[in-house]
């Protein structure tokens, strides 16, 4: 059972460690775009050591927050820290990027971008798919077995570009 004492202890512990939850507007596992040229991807929050540099327009995945710094992952696989002010959210899905099925145990795949079309099958949670195109709130994806079809993209979570 969660007691007020346990909640207080958790808050104190996370504050002491410098770990904070991202603000509601900063969704984890969402793609953001770099707004500036030559942004240093730092080894730690506020560190002068950097891992790589980001170019304007580069896309990163927000994977955590620490001391008001965002921990991000690049498409090259680098993980480091940047200030949120240098990133802007993107509502666009990334063509040819890999997404995984989430928020549902099984996702129906359709022949056309509407639920009234023929259902081609289902894919399980965690299955990776490659996004090919988007129409409204539907994504045309290529499945691991080579088949393709339409799924609702609200059930997809970005993995990598």
Q: What is this entry, summarized?
A:
This protein is 9% helix and 45% strand. With 161 residues, it is mostly beta strands.
Describe this protein's structure:
The protein has 161 residues and is mainly β. Helix content is 9%, strand content 45%. It has 1 helix and 14 strands, in the order H-E-E-E-E-E-E-E-E-E-E-E-E-E-E. It has one helix at 4-17; strands at 31-34, 39-42, 50-54, 59-66, 69-74, 79-83, 87-89, 98-101, 106-110, 119-124, 128-135, 138-142, 148-152, 156-160. The strands form 4 sheets. Strands 6-5-4-1-7 form a 5-stranded antiparallel β-sheet, with no helix packed on it. Strands 13-12-11-8-14 form a 5-stranded antiparallel β-sheet, with no helix packed on it. A hairpin with an 8-residue loop joins strand 9 (106-110) and strand 10. The longest helix is centred in the first third of the chain and has 14 residues, at 4-17. Residues 6-25 have low confidence and may be disordered.
Essential attributes:
single chain, about 160 residues, mainly beta, five-stranded antiparallel beta sheet, 14 strands, elongated
Name the structural class.
mainly beta
Order of helices and strands: HEEEEEEEEEEEEEE
Number of helical stretches of at least 4 residues: 1
Proportion of residues in extended strands: over 45%
Number of strands: 14
Outline type: elongated
Helix content: under 10%
Low-confidence regions? 6-25
| Major β-sheet profile | 5 strands, antiparallel
Mean pLDDT: 83
Whole-angstrom Rg: 19 Å
- Adjacency order of strands in the biggest sheet: 6-5-4-1-7
**End-to-end CA span:** 41 Å
């Amino acid at each position: 059972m969660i007691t007020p004492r346990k909640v207080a202890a958790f808050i104190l512990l996370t504050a002491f460690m410098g770990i904070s939850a991202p603000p509601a507007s900063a969704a984890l596992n969402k793609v953001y775009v770099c707004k500036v040229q030559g942004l240093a991807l730092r080894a730690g929050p506020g560190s002068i050591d950097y891992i790589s540099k980001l170019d304007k327009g580069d896309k990163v995945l927000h994977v955590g927050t620490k001391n008001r710094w965002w921990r991000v992952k690049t498409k090259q696989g680098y993980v480091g820290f940047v200030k949120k002010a240098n990133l802007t959210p993107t509502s666009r899905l990334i063509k040819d990027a890999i997404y995984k099925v989430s928020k549902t145990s099984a996702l129906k795949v359709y022949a056309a971008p509407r639920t009234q079309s023929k259902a081609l099958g289902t894919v399980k949670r965690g299955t990776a798919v490659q996004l090919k195109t988007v129409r409204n709130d539907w994504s045309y994806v290529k499945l691991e077995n080579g088949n393709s079809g339409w799924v609702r993209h609200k059930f997809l979570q970005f993995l990598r570009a």
